[in-house]
Amino acid sequence: QTDIQKKLASLRAELIKDFPFIHRIALAIYDAGRDILQTYSYDEETPSNLRNYEAVLSDCTSLHKLSVCGQERVINDISVFDKSKHEHSRLIRKAGYQASYTMPLIIEDQLVGFFFANSKLKNVFHGEVIKRLRLITMVLTLLLARDLARLEVLKSTVESIKMMSHHRDSETGEHLSRMSSYSLLIARQLAKKYKLTDVQVGYIYLYSPLHDVGKLMVPDSILLKKGALTKKEFERMKRHTIAGSDLTDKLVSVYQLSNMPYIPMLSNIIRSHHEKLDGSGYPDGLEGNDIPLEARIVAVADIFDALTSKRPYKKAWTNDEAIAELERQSGF
Predict the structure, then answer these.
(1) What does the pLDDT look like over 210-223, one tens digit per residue?
(2) The model's pTM
């Protein structure tokens, strides 16, 4: 768990001592570059489907207005949104929530996200409970500001490496963009089965473009070779997994990222994305569930994009052909 996840849990635990009707509190973060609001962290009394999704903020009329005015919103009867077509409103109602409190999180005049509190009872958000929620919002805004500052350093590192890869091989840069999107889609589909949190899914998406960082150490004569690699060249290419893992350790040290959440997940992706379920992969010959889930997700995204992309030595496979090949490799 990240500090914010732990803090949300402890805050709600304290909150329900005085206000037992607070059945859920949550944070969503805002990506201004994409105008995307995405679920981030939450603590709830009973499991719901209010996780692992995102929405365009400008399409969410009421939330967009809140972000502009910077004011809180109290709705003590959510049935007023029964006719809303937005996914969030539908999921809130499906989860049985009857009332809500919403506060935009503003840091240096910039929207960074929203805080939500929900109850399965109507007409509960007023007086002392609102005062307490305002204090909680202040605490979470400070914690989020710290986390986002560290995350920006990590994102900048990722983008720098992606730029280096793109300048060296434009197809590699485009591949990274596509396969990271595929990784996100796969992770979201598997989130419920493997109990992945919103934060974990987000980091798989963030880390996935670094899976082949070790190829920066591979000579151009091998990496950019148009024809098939010789056995010796292929053995050299395979070492990019270990080289990437070593390089990542250095980057984590240089940029002081060791306290970032899920750094081991990054290492797993880079080192293990060429492992295979039958143990014939590399560099460690891992089998089945011994291969970290995040590495398996990225491996599938990587293979799918490779198969469905045109190369000098092959035509692009159809999606159906690529999926059939992935199923064959999985043994199902």
Answers:
(1) 898 888 888 889 88
(2) 0.68
